[in-house]
Design goal:
Blueprint: H1 9-18, E1 21-30, E2 36-46, E3 52-53, H2 55-62, H3 66-82, E4 89-93, H4 96-101, H5 110-117, E5 123-128, H6 133-148, E6 152-158, H7 167-172, E7 175-178, H8 181-184, H9 189-204, E8 208-212, H10 217-226, E9 230-232
Parallel strand pairs: 2-4, 4-5, 5-6, 6-7, 7-8, 8-9
Antiparallel strand pairs: 1-2, 1-9, 2-3
Length: 244
């Protein structure tokens, strides 16, 4: 049976050669002021008929080839930063494998150079929470390297049931992004005890918490009850036009 989670080599090569890439900027909203605090830049991909391709499928396919993964990720980051709004902090996702595929953590690392040369605003590098222990180890090294270069970091997908929570990674990042799973499981009393404890820890450690997946007024009200700092989600598509 054909693996539907991977693109065919021909489709992947065509996508890379034609650079069928795009970017969407999702606003991250300060829950108290209701103003835009930052934007998250999201990768978008399209096939030869201009139909969207899910980014997770593209990146899953690229992991079979470290060089191709680096090429696509690097071009995506250049695109995202080129069109980023002025004077507003930018969250950019970065795969640990992409960062390490360059073979160096020193000043010549292409991603590090790209981030340090960005002058429009502050960059926050967002790491995806993974289920593999090796990913957590790589995340720690990457966060340490970025921190030494005065670049802030965030951890994504926290509380997603398919992700492993690395307490070491959570201690080092500046922002904790709670997965939308939190909203869909707000009625689970034991689970919410854990979520609230994590938020309390974050604030005690001078970290900021972002709740993803906010789509309704009820979701926003729940976010306020949780005492998170920022929210992100489709609820704000009606209020703020996406860039890109």
């Amino acid at each position: 049976m054909k693996n539907k989670s991977h693109l065919s080599p021909a489709t992947l090569i065509e996508l890379m050669e034609k650079q069928r890439y795009g970017v969407e900027y999702q606003p991250i909203i300060d829950i108290k002021t209701k103003e835009i605090y930052a934007y998250e830049s999201l990768s978008r991909f399209f096939d030869s008929k201009n139909a969207p391709i899910r980014p997770d499928i593209v990146y899953s396919s690229l992991h079979d080839s470290p060089l191709s993964l680096f090429q696509v990720e690097y071009q995506q980051k250049k695109l995202q930063l080129s069109y980023a709004p002025n004077k507003v902090d930018i969250f950019v996702n970065l795969d640990q494998d992409s960062y390490f595929s360059t073979g160096t953590l020193k000043e010549e690392n292409p991603f590090l150079k790209l981030f340090k040369e960005f002058e429009k605003s502050k960059i926050i590098v967002e790491l995806i929470e993974n289920s593999e222990i090796n990913d957590a180890i790589m995340s720690l090294a990457m966060i340490d390297n970025l921190s030494k270069n005065n670049i802030h970091t965030a951890i994504d997908d926290v509380c997603n049931p398919q992700s492993m929570v690395s307490t070491a990674v959570i201690q080092l990042v500046n922002y904790i992004k709670l997965d939308k799973y939190v909203l869909s499981n707000r009625g689970n009393v034991n689970f919410m005890l854990l979520v609230k404890a994590l938020i309390n820890y974050a604030h005690s450690a001078n970290k900021k918490v972002i709740l993803e997946g906010v789509e309704t007024a009820d979701d926003l009200h729940f976010a306020k009850q949780l005492n998170v700092d920022f929210v992100q989600g489709f609820y704000y598509r009606k209020l703020f036009k996406n860039v890109g």
